[in-house]
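Ticket opened by: R.M.
Priority: normal
Category: complex prediction / small molecule

The reporter submitted a protein together with iron/sulfur cluster and asked that the result be attached to this ticket for the collaborator who will pick it up next week. Submitted input follows.
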Amino acid sequence: MTGPLFQAHHLSRGFRLPGGRRLMAVDDVSFRLHQGETLALVGESGSGKTTLGRMVVGLTAPQSGSLTFAGSAIRAPRREVQMVFQDSAAALNPRHSIGESVMVPLVWALGLRRPAAEAQARALLDRVGLAADHFFARLPHELSGGQRQRVGIARALAPNPSVLVADEPVSALDVSVRAQILLLFRELRDERGLAALFITHDLGVVRSVAQRVLVLYRGQVVEQGPVAAVMDRPRHPYSQALRAATPVPNPDRQRPPVPRPPDLGDLPGCAFRARCPGAHAACAVPPTLRAVGGDHDVACHLAA
Ligand code: SF4
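Result attached by the on-call engineer:
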């Protein structure tokens, strides 16, 4: 297909906090995914990334907005859209063997009989680098974090999805294991032509997995565009601060931390106003996302 495979249109979701205050976890977010494309969703903890990912797979209902897959509206979890969870230990049933965990979606989502499901589960385990003869009957606690994440990937792929949401899939892993899982992710995406939403707080991994990036701050899109444009020349002060805070491999070339002005709490206008070094009078009016060229959009009055 030539158009987007998956689209999110103006998704919003709020939660009520103790004391009755309302927090918008996701606020009017739209994006599109083409077949074979990976969109990195970045932002600090609490920026709304996970809530957005859960809405995409149907685990959290949007309060407003809509989702379309292959041009048709979707309102409930679908086989075609699957998720790899951050916490691989919690995502697996501790009493189910690894093989059983991968077989479940094959039986329930694809309707396979158990012999066919077992054969397919074994093939999937082999493909993600876990020799089925060795791992099929093992329990999750017998595996390392990296091995459990491989099981999570196999299980997400079992229903043969077209769209994969990966929620911080490598954030809990050692650096060496992280590189192996990222490589596996790229290989499987390319083999299967998957569209993917890759959620991360770590800008260091964005270039290695994604073609496009969307930056969230307090549930709002503040910048989006091709990875090279956003990472090489971020236009929004928040994206600039995120990039500046990204560790570099050589400690001698470590970037100095960005001075952070005092957080003045909630101010009317731009959501980033209380932290922004460039805030000025016009920022009392919320900026809208606008094009700055090259399929690159920024929500800041100063962006050019
Ligand atoms: Fe900073 Fe104003 Fe831009 Fe918001 S609109 S990011 S406060 S300069």
